[in-house]
Design goal:
4-stranded antiparallel β-sheet, GIY-YIG endonuclease, 474 residues, 19% strand, alpha+beta, 5-stranded mixed β-sheet, single chain, 15 strands
């Protein structure tokens, strides 16, 4: 199959490579088709073995009490793996445990890996089950030591011999090389061929059994970013959960990074994937609206929803993700700049406020400070949070072009809102003719527009003023 490989299986105290530990190791090294070494050992995990695991594997706390620790056998295992491909059934599981065990020894495991589950899926594409029990049943393989490390290794070894006889060495080697070029970090149940994912900018979408996405992400290097999720499963619990649930991957290429960022934000808000923490719908966004009259009470009013309109940004400050965040931030500014909580609307009452009594308010509440001066100081305090007014006469387009693929996108913005991404003159005309007069505020679009539009051209993407007769120009 390969010039040199090690068939390996582990028994462990559980399924979490970050928390659980190895209790047994078995390995058979094969070189040029000939077995050259066979080794197995119990391992004292240093943690309690549950009754469930003992019942499943037959490995008890008493059985491993006098066994060596992983530290004591790790170097021997490294020698067995030296220069060989690590082969296991659902190798991501075994490899993840070994990575963490060796990391505790301050050793980095660098073995290439190959998964026999994925090899079975390639060789038998019309068959559903590819777990070890399903393979044993299908091929008539038996063992008296199922769920013991060497017993499971021997099942794999027997299955490979049957596969070689059925398909021939060349075909099996070809499939093994295909998997080796992909990566054994891939979940064995994944239906998508990761090699088909382009190495360019775009958005990737992870799906489980259902139609709703598990996770939406973006990258300027799609395939590498997708692989990084699976390579992190041994050290990040969220990545481990995704790898356990994933069944297929879809992707959308974009002309560049901006297109990927915009599409990611839209898809996350649209589908609310389970494992996306950020970019979700901001239903509680709000901002402070400053009254232009210095004597008005209160000077600030909290606005949200349709009142949080880009057309009103000249007098709005924020945005904040919740009312509590808005009030907390305003209290901090009041304390830092000596502003009156009564005038701001954060404290009830009339006359001299409590903050003035303790020297933290300059006295606009009792006539010691002119309303105009207090109003000016409030504007200065809020200046960093002021929402920017739209600096263009109308909608604009940001043209993004990928020289490698030839793909061209135009991202249409108006009043800080991303209206659409278009790829033809017809699409552009339709967007410009149907755009809404009142545009809903979106925090992610606002931040991206600030980054890529101000000042025009700074990002390296051309900014084009648009009208009803505009063309893509690409």
């Amino acid at each position: 199959m390969l010039p040199s490989y090690v068939l390996l299986d582990l028994e462990t105290t559980g399924g979490n490579a970050l928390r659980d530990r190895v209790t047994e190791i078995a390995a058979v090294r094969v070189e040029d088709g000939v077995e050259v070494a066979r080794w197995s050992t119990l391992v004292n995990p240093g943690v309690y073995i549950s009754g469930f695991i003992e019942q499943l594997t037959g490995i008890s706390n008493a059985l491993v009490a006098d066994a060596p620790t992983f530290d004591e056998v790790g170097q021997h295992l490294l020698q067995l793996l030296d220069g060989a491909v690590l082969v296991a059934h659902n190798v991501r599981f075994d490899h993840g445990f070994l990575q963490n065990e060796f990391a505790r020894m301050n050793v980095t495991l660098r073995s290439k890996t190959l998964c026999t589950v994925r090899l079975s899926r390639l060789l038998y594409p019309g068959v559903k089950g590819h777990g070890l029990d399903a393979i044993m049943l299908r091929h008539g393989i038996s063992t008296a030591s199922r769920h013991r490390a060497m017993g499971d290794v021997q099942v794999m070894q027997t299955w490979l011999q049957l596969v070689f006889a059925e398909f021939g060495t060349d075909k099996v080697r070809q499939h093994a090389q295909t998997l080796l070029q992909g990566s054994a970090a891939l979940p064995p149940q994944l239906d998508t061929n990761v090699a088909d994912i382009p190495e360019g900018p775009g958005v990737y979408i992870f799906y489980g059994e259902g139609t709703l996405p598990l996770y939406v992400g973006k990258s300027v290097k799609l395939r590498s970013r997708v692989m990084s999720h699976f390579q992190a499963t041994s050290r990040e619990p969220r990545e481990m959960r995704i790898a356990q649930e994933i069944r297929r991957i879809e992707w959308v290429e974009t002309a560049g990074e901006l297109g990927a960022l915009l599409l990611e934000a839209r898809l996350v808000k649209q589908h609310q994937p389970l494992h996306n923490r950020q970019l979700r719908r901001e239903s509680s966004l709000c901002a402070w609206r400053l009254d232009i009259n210095p004597s008005a009470r209160p000077l600030l009013t909290l606005v949200r929803g349709t009142e949080l309109s880009p057309q009103q940004f000249g007098n709005l400050y924020g945005p904040y993700r919740s009312k509590n965040q808005a009030i907390s931030h305003l209290r901090e500014l009041a304390d830092e700049h000596g502003l009156c909580l009564q005038a701001l609307g954060l404290e009830s009452g009339k006359g001299r406020c409590f903050a003035h009594q303790i020297g933290r308010c300059k006295g606009v509440c009792c006539g010691d400070e002119a309303p105009e001066r207090h109003h000016l100081r409030l504007q200065i305090a809020l200046s960093a949070d002021k929402l920017r007014q739209w600096p263009f006469a109308g909608p604009v387009g940001l043209r993004e072009h990928n020289a490698r693929t030839g793909q061209a996108d135009m991202h249409v913005f108006d009043q800080w809102c991303h209206l659409a991404t278009v790829r033809s003159d017809e699409e552009l005309v339709e967007v410009l003719q149907t755009r809404a007069e009142v545009l809903a505020f979106d925090l992610d679009s606002y931040r991206l527009a600030l980054k890529y539009l101000l000042p025009p051209g700074k990002s390296g993407i051309a900014v084009v003023a648009l009208n009803s007769s505009s063309k893509m120009g690409l």
